[in-house]
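Long-time lurker. I teach an intro course on protein structure, and each term I like to show students one example going from raw sequence to a predicted 3D structure in token notation. This year I'd like something fresh instead of my usual example. Would anyone be willing to generate the tokens for the chain below so I can use it in lecture? Attribution to the forum is fine with me.
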Amino acid sequence: MAVRRMLPGSIVVFLLIMGAHIYAGMPEVAAQGGFPCASETVPGDQLASAALGLTRQELDNLYGPGNAVQTGWLYEFDEFDLTLADCDLILTIDPDGQFADPDAASGLVRTLLPEDAVLAGTWQFGTLQSAPQDADEWVSAELAARYRLLGEPRTGSVLVLYSYDGDAYNPGSIVRVELRPAEIPA
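-- Reply from a regular --
Happy to contribute to a lecture. Here you go:
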């Protein structure tokens, strides 16, 4: 009987010690900007972008305060939602809205990139049994300069992934678009 009481008590003490170590390290990491693209300052470089590469404060100034969600900061629009997740932008598209069309989704992406971004290539992924996925690569010198200014190990290259709700025979609508800036290899 005594062993039963000691074992759970020792587990609780162990968990408390581990929790204290984790908690003690969190403010230090947050103060050092331990999360990618978590800058609290607005750089003075005048990046010409409607979303990608902007800090949360810049997005708040443009679109109103975002809502804190589990994956980042959510900004809601009429036919899509934009989530700032670290340096990435994730668009959740209304499948019945205008941006569910591939050409319209591409046009939307273009408006969210820096003005100097150029299309470097386009690819298609998927198999007959899976939902198709298209990808674009965009390159922006202004975005690369912004990441250098923020001290982020990222290039000006952006992978854009378009996800559909169908399969290879009937792709359906675009329901998700991910804009992922490339990291500089270590």
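Some talking points for your students: The longest helix spans residues 2-31. The radius of gyration is 21 Å.
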